[in-house]
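Hi C.,

You asked whether I'd gotten around to modeling the 421-residue construct. I have! Everything is below, sequence then structure, no commentary in between.
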Amino acid sequence: MTSLSPISDELLMFIKRNIKENPASLRLKYHGKINNFDLDFALTQIESRQKTKKKLPHFISNQCFIFPTVLSAEQASHEAVAAYHASLIEKNSDLLDMTAGLGIDVMTMAQKCSHATACELDETKAQTLRHNCKVLGLDNITVVGADSIEWIAETDKHFDVIFIDPARRGEDNARTYNFHDCQPDIMNLQAMLSSKTSRLLIKASPLLDVAQTLKDISHVRAIRAICVNGECKEILVEALYTASASPLPDSVLKKAIDDSILKEAIDLKDDGSLISKFSFYDTSEPEVDLSTATPIAYALETDIIPGHYLYEPNAAVMKLAPWNELCKTFDGLKKLAPSSHLFVSEKKYESFPGRVLKIEKRIEKKDRKTLKDLPVNVAVRNYPLSASELRKQLKVREGSDLFIYGTRISAPLLILARREN
């Protein structure tokens, strides 16, 4: 069994003194010159802390917090996302994390729990998690160094919540996205898990096919796309087993009454505070024109005028594609085209979940020469050129709050707009 390196004062001082240095350069500089601690372990800590400076500031503020590998640092949950997971947990719950890894999620969620069990098959990671729980004062977490599938099959415990983050890498370390390609195989575990918990939270790839997931996973009650600063980090799938005697949390009580599925697009700041949240219950209505009495409306080219507002949904909204719901929520919002995924309105909606811009003009062919060297951002939605190709064609520079959108209504068009948020 592998043992952790001792956490000595000399080791901690070396890490603190060299925290901004290049680990490869440090390896060359100190090779064969360090005798009182493990140099490789120290360099792992330095590189891991450099990689997690923005996503794990709370955890690494404790100088005794350690990482088993650099890969574990790279794959760790952002602490803002972990805090959001914890917000979904009822107070005093009994939680099981089947795939703890570095343990950012379970250590955060445990703060809401009476007790948490963390399963981790890799013994070094399990030892590291025990150490980190101790230095962080989390005495309500039991770390089990075992195969979680075998362990849960043998235990007679029933958990309020089971959390699982299936490994998303297959053969030759290739990334996988669908549940049937991940380990453990959630699709074949559903019957057993439904007998062990009231709620199952599955953390999945941001590239997960949401429609296919609803076919693969039974009893889905909520699907959440979670972003940090506009970057989609994960899809969180929640299954609720209502036959359980355990009380249901308020956030999912509605599902016990009807068959609609809660969908939420969440965008967080690094500190965990909310940038935007768009929630709706999916009724699976097809997207059709407003003239047939359904909610969605499409823009005309005459709607692209100075003073109107252009809206680009954030990554979480794009993942869930709630176009009808956006038009219901924001009165007067019009979609440019079925595949353009941009919206326009004469009204300004500060709470729109995404980028809000004020249209300066529609760019005509005669205007293109005046754009040369203009500092502007370029984006495309349903346009025949890529953003880099359009930038090169227009000969513009990067930067500023100005945006050029290449998009389409009945034909391709260019829109110049200034960001308002």
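If it helps when you're writing up: The chain has 15 helices and 16 strands.

Thanks,
B.
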